[in-house]
């Protein structure tokens, strides 16, 4: 209990004034937790406000289209979070009669919600005594108790969850969980924590053993896959282009993109022109092909690095079924395509947005 009391006292003095800490509305807490799963607080804040303004209730979110949700999510990455959010909102409205689930065992049934998120919502909104274990909590516990079990191993996940559950203040679960997460984010930081002012320094085992910088331990990461993506942005004489919706599993599911030609390595103009898109689809049509900027754009995801090149094809002819360039903002697209379109708008070479 002393451990929890010290953390709580520290939290009351040093906690950040974050908007989701001023409410126990489970819908708002759920939104904040999903947004912050793979996003820094400073970046996620703006998205949180956009979502609660656009969809102030779970019913509003459920009644929206997936494209509206994806468009609002644009730039946050890990788009499956947005799709799961929308799916679960519909589940709450249709299956739970619009009432947000109020227990851990029911909350964890929501698509996209795991142990951490279910624990956070259950404890913060309903004061259920279920411990949260996120990256910050792993770090605090691993250092304080000098635990060398890898935090991303099956054994480690179970071990840290059990320990966190033993330490929770069952009478004040909401405060305890928020305190230990904030402590990890602001005091027991990943790099260069100031242990000299830490209120737990006298009993921190890793500090005594001079192992703070060595903990927590993670198992070796999986191999990063490298992919080379060539996007062909078509510009017809009537200022239209081709946008295609990505289907199936994988990155950017249900987002829109230009014609994609993937290659094993970086390719040049001659290699690109040999693709079936140019030899079959555009064969016989008068075109002008330009590489937009000279360097590949490196887009790093958790399991793969994408090396992206944008090619602009000016077509001497009209397109009856294309998307007008001025309408592209209406479609949810990956952030790298959004950034390319914004650069194109500022370009003095192409005047397609006039």
TrEMBL record:
User: Which CDD domains does the protein's record reference?
Assistant: ENDO3c, NUDIX_DNA_Glycosylase_C-MutY
Which reactions does this protein catalyse? Hydrolyzes free adenine bases from 7,8-dihydro-8-oxoguanine:adenine mismatched double-stranded DNA, leaving an apurinic site
Domain HhH-GPD span(s) in chain numbering: 35-186
What keywords sit in the KW lines? 4Fe-4S, DNA damage, DNA repair, Glycosidase, Hydrolase, Iron, Iron-sulfur, Metal-binding
Reported EC number(s) for this entry are 3.2.2.31
Q: Which InterPro entries match?
A: A/G_AdeGlyc_MutY, DNA_glycosylase, Endonuclease3_FeS-loop_motif, HhH-GPD_domain, HhH_base_excis_C, HhH_motif, MIG/MutY, MutY_C
Paste the cofactor note: Binds 1 [4Fe-4S] cluster.
Q: Which cofactors does it use?
A: [4Fe-4S] cluster
The domain of life for this entry's organism is Bacteria
The record's top EC class is hydrolase
Pfam families this protein is in? Answer: EndIII_4Fe-2S (PF10576), HHH (PF00633), HhH-GPD (PF00730), NUDIX_4 (PF14815)
PANTHER family linked to this entry: ADENINE DNA GLYCOSYLASE
Write out the function statement from the record: Adenine glycosylase active on G-A mispairs. MutY also corrects error-prone DNA synthesis past GO lesions which are due to the oxidatively damaged form of guanine: 7,8-dihydro-8-oxoguanine (8-oxo-dGTP).
NCBIfam families given in the database record: mutY
Protein known as: Adenine DNA glycosylase
Q: Which organism is it from?
A: Urechidicola vernalis
Report which gene this protein is encoded by.
mutY
